[in-house]
Amino acid sequence: MRGGVARYLSKLVEASDGEMNVIVPVDHPEQSADSSDVIDVMSLKNVERKVFWRSGWPKWSTLIKRCLEIGKDRVVFVSHVFPIGTAAWIASILKPIKYTVLFHGTDLKRVNTRWKKFLLRRICARAETIFV
Asked: What pTM was computed for the model?
């Protein structure tokens, strides 16, 4: 995908040299035509397509299940605080899982309501590590 965060994440996956298991939504594009500096994540080993979104509210509730599956024996790396961080936080309340949060500009820009500030504080408080 295009954009700074997409480039950063693709390079992070590449640098992990197979040590990072990646889960992408089933509708994740193969690779942008104009993103020659972004690796084709789907060509790497340890990449799975899974359902992230469902109909109804909240659309991202299946992410809680994904976080519980991953968090059994690994640390969940959260690339977007909303909604993935919210799902990891809820999962950590249900079972003892560890998660790490990566913040970037658009994440922090979206913290514009009391509810999101409330969630952000809780997500950060339970996170194992926070990268900004």
From this structure: 0.78
State the alpha helices, DSSP H only, in the chain.
Answer: 4-15, 62-71, 86-94, 105-109, 114-126
Collect all residues with Cβ–Cβ distance below 8 Å to 131 and sequence separation of at least 6.
100, 101, 102, 103
Strand, helix or coil for residue 50:
strand
Token duo for residue 17: 């040299």
* Residue at 53: amino acid letter: W
How does pLDDT run across 6-30, given as a tens digit for each residue? 778 778 888 888 787 777 766 666 6
Question: Is the separation of the CB atoms in 20 and 12 below 8 Å?
Answer: yes
C-alpha distance from residue 114 to each of 78, 119, 121 (Å)? 22, 9, 11
* CA-based nearest residue to 9, from 42, 53, 41: 41
Domains of the chain (ranges; CATH) run 1-50 (no CATH), 52-132 (3.40.50.1100)
CA distance 13 to 5: 12
